[in-house]
Amino acid sequence: MPEQSELKKIPALLPARMLNEYAYCPRLFYLEWVQGEFTHSEDTLEGKRAHKRVEQESGEIPDAKDSSEIKQLHAKSVILSSEKYGLIAKLDLIEGTTNEMIPVDYKKGQAPEISGGAWEPERVQLCAQALLLRENGYTCKEGVIYYAGSKKRVSIPITDELVSRTLKLLDDAKQLAAKSQIPPPLADDNKCPRCSLVGICLPDEVRVLSPDIQLNVIDTDDIRRLYPARDDAIAVYVQEQGAVVAKNGEELEVRSGQNVISKVRLMEISMVALFGNVQVTAQALHELCKREIPICYFSFGGWFYGITYSHIHKNIELRRRQYYIANEKNQSLSLAKRFVVGKIKNCRTMLRRNCPNVPEAALEELSKLADLAFESKDMDALLGVEGAASSVYFAHFGEMLKSADEFKFDFHFRNRRPPKDPVNALLSYAYAMLTGIMTVTLMAVGFDPYLGFYHQPRYGRPSLALDLIEEFRPLIADSVVLSVINNDELKSDDFICRAGSTAIKPESKKVVIRAFERRLDSLVTHPVFGYSISYRRVLEVQARLLGRYLTGEIKEYPVFLTR
After folding, report:
1. Are the beta carbons of 477 and 437 closer than 8 angstroms?
2. Where do the structural domains in the chain lie, given as residue ranges?
3. SS3 category, 26
4. Read out DSSP for 145-161?
């Protein structure tokens, strides 16, 4: 493993806002500052709105050495830094006089009725701003916190005690960043529910799975779902050949010739998936990148080609661990076995639930193969077990099909490149979409989706995404295929069969996409944590738990097994 000291060099200047985060929760500070995690919540968006009136730079601050006469000051959005303290801050507002300056920090909420007039993290952030003013030669004896929620100004004296506390927290924060070791999550703390990063932090989930006995005291029945069960943002799929995706104000438009065939508000989009010959304007591309909305590219037939993403995630720690463990045969094998065992057990559950006359021998065989997978000594043996399990599963897959169409959806075995029958065409299409979704999810978490532990690296193949979808192939993709066939959403004339290959007609693909999105949006009870979340959210949680396992926070990767 690489030396911890090699993982990063601490940036010379720590933002005062990060000092606020450290005082609030060291783990939040580490996630946001060291690992580069951030996501908006209702609170952070409200805070952003509260700062709008002071975001525009205005006013002048004379140099401390040149201010011979006392002048009134009113300057907005002033950036100051100090090499001595290793601090930098953007001060919302500076008022007072050249003889004594007062930093004013804007906060969105209500002024708390507590001793000191403000919470410690807010007082510490304000004190850091005062120290920056002093270090730059100005006099600063007090600061002000303006609470937009109650329209109240609270004066905060910059006392020696507050300065001492601020400097201590500053030193502690820098030491924590240098350790390259994330602090444990808070225990049943009231801060967690309103934290914007709670869905990334996963405090209760990490505590229940932690190898640290002192942390591992929470019962699974007490795990709180602290993030929304569903993601309100939607995926946009564009299949119209020759269409152009363009930006128009705050909306994304899909145009065919001179006609606008669809429009979606940018704030409601989670990703954009383009199939075949679809163009994107530079303006739309820039805006999607700015908003960190990924664009996935598929062939007309649904083969996943690649992705456009705004920036590589800042969490180099996670990728270093991913690269290290991917080169460790035993650790890679351990993870690979869990992926394959999860797939086999979920395939068995699908047959047990949906196949009316499944032979007991087939279920027993899948159980034995799951045990063999867990006991595999190398990757070749594991591949052989997975292949045997797939043969058993797909031998009975056709028995789960119940279409009333006179056209019979015959299915005898899995084939692809190209698929030779409608069922295989649907399976390939659903697997491709699932791979794309998982690739986007892994990039958002901070992984390199092209380096896996089970699927070996190959040019252009998102191996890690293929690893993680193993346990979800039967639960999501296969379920979608069964749904569109058994509910008679697709008929014989929805497919094109020629020269021994079969393809789904363009209009019929929309039916599959709608069914796929319905499945991702459907709620399921997490088998480990006991709360209900959507399958789309499950994919993200599993990816984050894999990250927690790689960095040593949890003792093993918890496979998602439906009951």
Report:
1. no
2. 4-179, 192-222, 234-308, 316-550
3. helix
4. EEETTTTEEEEEE--HH
User: What does the block give as tokens for 1?
Assistant: 């493993």
Query: Hey, is 401 helix, strand or coil?
Result: coil
Query: Taking the CB of residue 330, how many other CB atoms lie within 10 A of it?
Result: 8
Residue 70's SS3 state is coil
Q: What is the DSSP letter of 108?
A: S
d(CA 4, CA 34): 13
The architecture of the domain spanning 4-179 is: Alpha-Beta Complex (3.90)
Low-confidence ranges of the chain (pLDDT < 50): 1-8, 44, 47, 50, 406
Taken in order 238, 239, 240, 241, the sign of the CA dihedral is positive
Tell the burial category of 501 from Cβ atoms under 10 Å away from its Cβ (0-12, 13-18, 19+): middle
Summarize pLDDT for 280-338 with one digit per residue, the tens.
999 999 999 888 888 988 887 777 777 887 777 778 889 999 999 999 999 999 999 99
Measure the CA angle with vertex 76, ends 73 and 79; round to 5°. Answer: 105
Q: Which tens digit of pLDDT belongs to each residue from 495-516?
A: 888 877 888 888 898 899 999 9
Q: Count the Cβ atoms, other than its own, within 10 Å of residue 360.
A: 7
Distance of alpha carbon 223 from alpha carbon 149, whole angstroms: 32
- Residue 27 corresponds to which tokens in the numbers above? 């783990």
Q: Angle formed by the axes of helices 422-445 and 535-550, to 10°? A: 50
What CATH architecture does domain 316-550 belong to?
Up-down Bundle (1.20)
Continuous H helices in 280-395: 282-290, 316-326, 329-354, 360-375, 379-395
Distance between CA atoms of 267 and 406, rounded to whole angstroms? Answer: 44
- Please state, in angstroms and rounded to a whole number, the distance separating the CA atoms of residues 101 and 337: 63
> What tokens does 531 get?
């709360």
Q: For the chain, how far is it from start to end, CA to CA, in angstroms?
A: 37
Residue 44, exposed/middle/buried by CB under 10 A (0-12, 13-18, 19+)?
Answer: middle
Residue 56 pLDDT: 66
* pLDDT reported for residue 40: 59
What pLDDT score was predicted for residue 545? 96
- DSSP bridge pairs for 532: 525
Whether the CB-CB separation of 101 and 126 falls below 8 Å is answered with no
Give the span between the Cα atoms of 140 and 96, in whole angstroms. Answer: 10
Q: What letter does residue 112 receive in the DSSP assignment?
A: P
Structure-block tokens of residue 439: 């690739």
Statement: 234-308 belongs to CATH 3.100.10.20: yes
Same CATH fold, 316-550 and 234-308?
no
Which neighbouring-strand residues pair with 97? 72
**Structure token digits, residue 386:** 């997975």
